[in-house]
Amino acid sequence: MKLATWNINSLKVRLPQVLDWLRANPVDALCLQELKLSDEFFPIDAFQEIGYTAHWAGQKTYNGVAIVTPAPGTDIQKNIPGFEDPQQRVIAATLGDIRVVCAYCPNGQSLESDKYIYKLQWYEALNRWLQEELKRYPRLAILGDYNIAPADEDVHDPAKWEGDVLVSPPERQAFQALLSLGLSDAFRLFPQPEKSFSWWDYRRFAFRRNAGLRIDHILLSAPLAQACVACEIDKAPRGNEQPSDHTPVIATLAV
DNA sequence: ATGGCTTGACCATCAAGA
Questions:
Q1: What's the angle, vertex CA A178, arms to CA A211 and CA A167, rounded to 5?
Q2: In this complex, which residue's CA is closest to the C1' atom of nucleotide B7?
Q3: Which domain, by its residues, includes A85?
Q4: Which protein residues have any CB–strand B distance under 7 A?
Q5: Can you give the pTM of this predicted structure?
Q6: What is the CATH number of the domain that holds A240?
Q7: Number of domains comprising chain A
Protein backbone atom coordinates (compact mmCIF):
# COMPACT_ATOMS: atom_id res chain seq x y z
CA MET A 1 0.00 0.00 0.00
CA LYS A 2 1.21 3.48 -0.89
CA LEU A 3 0.10 6.69 0.78
CA ALA A 4 1.20 10.11 -0.43
CA THR A 5 0.77 13.78 0.38
CA TRP A 6 1.26 16.85 -1.82
CA ASN A 7 0.49 20.52 -1.26
CA ILE A 8 -0.30 21.53 -4.83
CA ASN A 9 -0.93 25.28 -4.31
CA SER A 10 -4.01 25.54 -6.58
CA LEU A 11 -5.56 22.42 -8.04
CA LYS A 12 -6.77 24.45 -11.01
CA VAL A 13 -3.22 25.32 -12.04
CA ARG A 14 -1.67 21.99 -11.04
CA LEU A 15 -4.32 19.48 -12.20
CA PRO A 16 -2.34 18.29 -15.25
CA GLN A 17 0.73 17.75 -13.07
CA VAL A 18 -1.29 15.84 -10.46
CA LEU A 19 -2.79 13.58 -13.15
CA ASP A 20 0.64 12.97 -14.70
CA TRP A 21 2.09 12.21 -11.29
CA LEU A 22 -0.68 9.73 -10.46
CA ARG A 23 -0.21 7.94 -13.78
CA ALA A 24 3.49 7.54 -12.99
CA ASN A 25 2.98 6.87 -9.27
CA PRO A 26 -0.11 4.76 -8.57
CA VAL A 27 -1.11 5.14 -4.92
CA ASP A 28 -3.89 3.98 -2.62
CA ALA A 29 -4.34 7.53 -1.35
CA LEU A 30 -3.01 10.90 -2.43
CA CYS A 31 -3.71 13.64 0.11
CA LEU A 32 -3.83 17.09 -1.49
CA GLN A 33 -3.66 20.46 0.25
CA GLU A 34 -4.29 24.05 -0.88
CA LEU A 35 -6.87 23.21 -3.52
CA LYS A 36 -7.84 26.91 -3.55
CA LEU A 37 -11.23 26.19 -5.11
CA SER A 38 -14.83 25.77 -3.97
CA ASP A 39 -16.44 22.35 -3.86
CA GLU A 40 -18.38 22.81 -7.10
CA PHE A 41 -15.17 23.30 -9.08
CA PHE A 42 -13.43 20.13 -7.87
CA PRO A 43 -12.40 18.27 -11.08
CA ILE A 44 -13.77 14.88 -10.08
CA ASP A 45 -14.31 13.84 -13.73
CA ALA A 46 -10.62 14.22 -14.53
CA PHE A 47 -9.70 11.91 -11.66
CA GLN A 48 -12.36 9.38 -12.60
CA GLU A 49 -11.01 9.26 -16.15
CA ILE A 50 -7.71 7.90 -14.83
CA GLY A 51 -9.30 5.41 -12.44
CA TYR A 52 -9.56 7.39 -9.23
CA THR A 53 -12.27 8.92 -7.12
CA ALA A 54 -11.95 11.54 -4.38
CA HIS A 55 -13.31 13.06 -1.20
CA TRP A 56 -12.80 16.78 -0.79
CA ALA A 57 -13.46 19.82 1.38
CA GLY A 58 -13.00 22.89 -0.77
CA GLN A 59 -12.85 26.60 -0.08
CA LYS A 60 -12.72 29.55 -2.44
CA THR A 61 -9.24 31.10 -2.82
CA TYR A 62 -7.65 29.56 0.28
CA ASN A 63 -6.99 26.18 1.88
CA GLY A 64 -9.02 23.15 0.74
CA VAL A 65 -8.05 19.48 1.07
CA ALA A 66 -8.79 16.22 -0.72
CA ILE A 67 -8.08 12.50 -0.60
CA VAL A 68 -7.73 10.97 -4.06
CA THR A 69 -8.12 7.20 -3.98
CA PRO A 70 -8.95 4.29 -6.32
CA ALA A 71 -12.07 3.29 -4.36
CA PRO A 72 -14.45 5.36 -2.24
CA GLY A 73 -13.72 5.51 1.49
CA THR A 74 -16.17 5.49 4.37
CA ASP A 75 -16.80 7.59 7.49
CA ILE A 76 -15.84 10.81 5.77
CA GLN A 77 -14.99 13.52 8.29
CA LYS A 78 -14.46 17.14 7.33
CA ASN A 79 -12.81 19.49 9.81
CA ILE A 80 -11.82 18.72 13.40
CA PRO A 81 -14.92 17.77 15.41
CA GLY A 82 -15.71 20.39 18.05
CA PHE A 83 -13.34 22.96 16.53
CA GLU A 84 -15.45 25.51 14.70
CA ASP A 85 -13.47 26.70 11.69
CA PRO A 86 -14.54 28.23 8.38
CA GLN A 87 -11.14 27.26 6.96
CA GLN A 88 -11.18 23.90 5.22
CA ARG A 89 -8.04 22.17 6.46
CA VAL A 90 -8.95 18.58 7.32
CA ILE A 91 -10.61 15.63 5.63
CA ALA A 92 -10.49 12.02 6.81
CA ALA A 93 -11.65 8.76 5.27
CA THR A 94 -11.43 5.09 6.13
CA LEU A 95 -9.88 2.96 3.37
CA GLY A 96 -10.24 -0.70 4.17
CA ASP A 97 -9.19 -0.84 7.83
CA ILE A 98 -6.90 2.18 7.62
CA ARG A 99 -7.93 5.64 8.75
CA VAL A 100 -6.40 8.28 6.48
CA VAL A 101 -6.35 11.89 7.67
CA CYS A 102 -5.37 14.68 5.26
CA ALA A 103 -4.35 17.92 6.97
CA TYR A 104 -3.33 21.40 5.89
CA CYS A 105 -2.02 22.85 9.13
CA PRO A 106 -2.01 26.63 9.55
CA ASN A 107 1.09 28.57 8.56
CA GLY A 108 1.09 31.00 11.47
CA GLN A 109 2.65 33.87 9.48
CA SER A 110 4.86 35.18 12.33
CA LEU A 111 5.26 34.70 16.05
CA GLU A 112 3.51 38.03 16.68
CA SER A 113 0.51 37.24 14.48
CA ASP A 114 -2.98 36.23 15.58
CA LYS A 115 -2.52 33.48 13.01
CA TYR A 116 0.23 32.04 15.20
CA ILE A 117 -2.20 31.78 18.14
CA TYR A 118 -4.69 30.14 15.80
CA LYS A 119 -2.01 27.70 14.64
CA LEU A 120 -1.20 26.55 18.18
CA GLN A 121 -4.90 26.27 19.09
CA TRP A 122 -5.54 24.36 15.90
CA TYR A 123 -2.75 21.91 16.80
CA GLU A 124 -4.22 21.43 20.29
CA ALA A 125 -7.61 20.61 18.78
CA LEU A 126 -6.00 18.24 16.27
CA ASN A 127 -4.14 16.49 19.09
CA ARG A 128 -7.31 16.04 21.16
CA TRP A 129 -9.22 14.69 18.19
CA LEU A 130 -6.45 12.28 17.13
CA GLN A 131 -6.34 10.86 20.66
CA GLU A 132 -9.95 9.77 20.23
CA GLU A 133 -9.50 8.79 16.62
CA LEU A 134 -6.60 6.46 17.51
CA LYS A 135 -8.85 4.61 19.95
CA ARG A 136 -11.39 3.98 17.21
CA TYR A 137 -8.82 3.36 14.48
CA PRO A 138 -5.55 1.80 15.68
CA ARG A 139 -4.34 1.77 12.09
CA LEU A 140 -4.16 5.48 11.36
CA ALA A 141 -2.06 7.65 9.04
CA ILE A 142 -2.10 11.43 9.03
CA LEU A 143 -0.53 13.07 6.01
CA GLY A 144 -0.17 16.66 5.03
CA ASP A 145 1.50 20.03 5.14
CA TYR A 146 2.28 20.55 8.83
CA ASN A 147 3.99 23.92 8.39
CA ILE A 148 6.52 22.78 11.00
CA ALA A 149 10.12 21.71 10.42
CA PRO A 150 10.48 19.28 13.34
CA ALA A 151 14.26 19.58 13.85
CA ASP A 152 17.24 21.60 12.69
CA GLU A 153 18.16 18.86 10.23
CA ASP A 154 14.90 19.71 8.45
CA VAL A 155 16.05 23.30 7.82
CA HIS A 156 18.60 24.34 5.20
CA ASP A 157 20.00 27.13 7.37
CA PRO A 158 18.96 26.62 11.00
CA ALA A 159 20.83 29.70 12.24
CA LYS A 160 18.97 31.94 9.81
CA TRP A 161 15.60 30.42 10.71
CA GLU A 162 16.10 30.26 14.47
CA GLY A 163 13.06 31.49 16.39
CA ASP A 164 11.10 32.08 13.20
CA VAL A 165 7.66 30.71 12.42
CA LEU A 166 7.73 27.05 11.23
CA VAL A 167 10.67 26.24 13.54
CA SER A 168 9.80 27.98 16.84
CA PRO A 169 9.93 25.85 20.02
CA PRO A 170 6.15 25.98 20.67
CA GLU A 171 5.47 24.74 17.16
CA ARG A 172 8.04 21.97 17.48
CA GLN A 173 6.47 21.03 20.82
CA ALA A 174 3.09 20.79 19.10
CA PHE A 175 4.64 18.42 16.57
CA GLN A 176 6.29 16.36 19.31
CA ALA A 177 2.94 16.17 21.11
CA LEU A 178 1.55 14.37 18.07
CA LEU A 179 4.42 11.88 18.20
CA SER A 180 3.66 11.43 21.91
CA LEU A 181 0.27 10.02 20.90
CA GLY A 182 2.19 7.04 19.51
CA LEU A 183 2.68 8.34 15.97
CA SER A 184 5.95 8.05 14.06
CA ASP A 185 7.43 10.38 11.45
CA ALA A 186 7.61 7.87 8.58
CA PHE A 187 10.48 9.70 6.88
CA ARG A 188 12.72 9.27 9.94
CA LEU A 189 12.08 5.54 10.21
CA PHE A 190 14.80 5.15 7.57
CA PRO A 191 18.26 6.51 6.79
CA GLN A 192 17.79 9.56 4.56
CA PRO A 193 20.03 11.84 2.53
CA GLU A 194 21.17 14.93 4.41
CA LYS A 195 19.38 18.14 3.50
CA SER A 196 16.14 16.42 2.49
CA PHE A 197 13.37 18.98 2.11
CA SER A 198 9.78 19.07 0.85
CA TRP A 199 9.34 22.81 0.27
CA TRP A 200 11.45 25.50 -1.38
CA ASP A 201 10.58 29.18 -1.69
CA TYR A 202 9.69 30.33 -5.20
CA ARG A 203 12.09 33.24 -4.78
CA ARG A 204 15.86 33.50 -5.06
CA PHE A 205 16.35 30.20 -6.88
CA ALA A 206 15.71 28.41 -3.60
CA PHE A 207 15.15 25.01 -5.24
CA ARG A 208 18.33 25.26 -7.29
CA ARG A 209 20.24 26.13 -4.10
CA ASN A 210 18.35 23.44 -2.14
CA ALA A 211 17.40 26.17 0.34
CA GLY A 212 14.35 24.34 1.66
CA LEU A 213 12.47 23.02 4.65
CA ARG A 214 10.95 19.63 5.44
CA ILE A 215 7.43 20.57 6.49
CA ASP A 216 5.31 17.93 4.71
CA HIS A 217 5.04 14.76 6.75
CA ILE A 218 3.45 11.35 7.05
CA LEU A 219 2.75 10.24 10.62
CA LEU A 220 1.88 6.58 11.24
CA SER A 221 0.36 4.83 14.23
CA ALA A 222 2.44 1.95 15.65
CA PRO A 223 0.92 -0.91 13.62
CA LEU A 224 1.45 1.04 10.39
CA ALA A 225 4.93 2.22 11.35
CA GLN A 226 5.88 -1.43 11.87
CA ALA A 227 4.57 -2.21 8.39
CA CYS A 228 6.26 0.77 6.73
CA VAL A 229 9.05 -0.33 4.37
CA ALA A 230 9.95 3.01 2.74
CA CYS A 231 9.32 6.75 2.86
CA GLU A 232 10.61 9.12 0.21
CA ILE A 233 10.35 12.67 -0.96
CA ASP A 234 9.81 12.87 -4.72
CA LYS A 235 11.67 16.01 -5.80
CA ALA A 236 10.92 15.54 -9.49
CA PRO A 237 7.71 17.63 -9.69
CA ARG A 238 9.51 20.64 -8.19
CA GLY A 239 11.49 20.78 -11.42
CA ASN A 240 8.34 20.95 -13.58
CA GLU A 241 7.26 24.01 -15.50
CA GLN A 242 5.01 26.01 -13.15
CA PRO A 243 5.74 23.77 -10.15
CA SER A 244 4.09 23.79 -6.77
CA ASP A 245 6.48 25.07 -4.11
CA HIS A 246 5.92 21.75 -2.27
CA THR A 247 6.73 18.29 -3.55
CA PRO A 248 5.17 14.87 -2.81
CA VAL A 249 6.08 12.60 0.10
CA ILE A 250 5.29 8.89 -0.28
CA ALA A 251 5.16 6.07 2.26
CA THR A 252 5.08 2.40 1.27
CA LEU A 253 3.42 -0.02 3.71
CA ALA A 254 3.56 -3.81 3.62
CA VAL A 255 -0.17 -4.16 4.23
C1' DA B 1 17.44 46.81 5.59
C1' DT B 2 14.09 45.22 2.24
C1' DG B 3 12.19 42.07 -0.87
C1' DG B 4 13.06 38.78 -3.92
C1' DC B 5 7.72 34.48 -6.58
C1' DT B 6 3.11 32.60 -7.25
C1' DT B 7 -1.89 32.43 -6.86
C1' DG B 8 -6.57 34.27 -6.70
C1' DA B 9 -9.55 38.06 -6.74
C1' DC B 10 -10.83 40.98 -10.23
C1' DC B 11 -8.79 44.53 -14.16
C1' DA B 12 -4.72 47.31 -10.23
C1' DT B 13 -2.99 46.23 -6.61
C1' DC B 14 -3.17 43.38 -2.52
C1' DA B 15 -3.48 39.36 0.79
C1' DA B 16 -1.42 35.10 1.81
C1' DG B 17 1.77 31.71 1.60
C1' DA B 18 6.35 29.81 4.18
A1: 30
A2: A10
A3: 2-253
A4: A 7, 9-10, 12-13, 34, 36-37, 60-62, 106-107, 109-110, 115, 145, 147, 165-166, 199, 201-204, 213, 215, 242, 245-246
A5: 0.97
A6: 3.60.10.10
A7: 1
